[in-house]
Design goal:
This is MBL fold metallo-hydrolase. The protein is of the alpha/beta class. The chain has 10 helices and 14 strands. It has one domain: 4-Layer Sandwich (Metallo-beta-lactamase, Chain A). Helix 6 runs antiparallel to helix 7. It binds zinc ion (ZN). The site of zinc ion has 5 residues, from loops.
Length: 295
């Protein structure tokens, strides 16, 4: 069941990136209560965080458009009341697909300014060989920011900051400081090799810097929500950083020596990580190629 769920999520992720049809009917939106006022929701696309309280509901990311109705119902089952704000951690359709649907219900969408810029035009995600059409006007974030902002909302101090050129050029980290919960968007894939969308400005160097910045502010009690994969801890993030640094060091050294991509793949530099990171989505070879092209 778990595997099937994971499979559906990732086939939905691929579909969201433009690959075709999927079985939205089979998707169930499940949730985990992390703190009295904070929930992690999973379904089809990037993980979501729901923050409830007196000021009104606030959602981080909204998955693919095909499941918007289900996301709405799942939120209602947790807490009735209007969804006032959605923050998009980046532009990919498996994190912004519900924007237009919720906007019709009066929800305001917030994101880094590069998210809006990218959603206004057609994009190619080279790493997945996908072409994505521009988003409709109603899906575009209505509030944008450039570096960082702090919200005092629902009794939480929420720090939202941009991490440059990481998974894309418009990634936000959302840190619920009062509750010690952080949503990292696709800067963190927990237990699977990450996509670095180098055609949207992503780099492995930026991913590493972003993870290091987050690590400065977390402790062993922090709940860390990845864009994909299960809820994580500081130690999951530390392991992820070690894997990223290992791959960056090896690939850049071999690239400097003039090795071809095929030779770097053949060197099996990720062998020690493959059983944990390379079986659920991107294969080791795909990840090496992405790292190579993002250096
Ligand atoms: Zn993404």
């Amino acid at each position: 069941m778990k595997f099937r769920h994971a499979f559906l999520c990732f086939s939905m992720f691929i579909s969201a990136m433009g690959a075709g049809l999927f079985a939205a009917d089979e998707i169930h939106i499940s949730y985990t209560q992390m703190r009295p006022n904070l929930f992690m929701l999973e379904g089809a696309g990037g993980n979501m965080v729901l923050c409830r309280g007196e000021d009104g509901l606030f959602l981080v990311d909204d998955q693919v458009s095909a499941v918007s109705e289900k996301v709405k119902k799942a939120i209602k089952a947790i807490e009735p009341g209007p969804l006032r704000f959605i923050l998009n951690t980046h532009w990919h359709h498996d994190h912004t697909g519900g924007n237009e649907y919720f906007r019709k219900g009066g929800t305001l969408t917030v994101a880094h300014r590069n998210v809006r810029k990218r959603m206004m035009k057609k994009n190619v995600v080279e790493a997945l060989k996908r072409e994505l059409e521009a988003s409709p006007e109603g899906a575009l974030p209505v509030i944008t920011f450039s570096k960082e902002m702090t919200w005092h909302y629902n009794g939480e101090e929420i720090q939202i900051y941009h991490v440059p050129n990481a998974h894309t050029d418009g990634d936000s980290i959302v840190f619920f400081k009062t509750s010690n919960v952080v949503h990292m968007g696709d800067v963190f894939f927990n237990g699977l090799y990450p996509l670095i969308d180098y055609s949207s400005g992503g780099t492995i160097k930026g991913m590493i810097s972003a993870v290091k910045r987050v690590l400065k502010h977390v402790d062993s009690d922090t709940q860390i929500v990845p864009g994909h994969g299960p809820l994580g801890t500081k130690w999951d993030l530390v392991t992820y950083l070690q894997m990223l640094e290992h791959v960056r060091d090896k690939v850049s050294a071999m690239k400097k020596q003039g090795k071809k991509l095929s030779e770097i793949k053949a060197a099996k530099i990720t062998a020690e990580w493959d059983a944990t990171w390379g079986t659920k989505w991107l294969t080791p070879d795909q990840f090496i190629e992405i790292a190579y092209r993002s250096i």
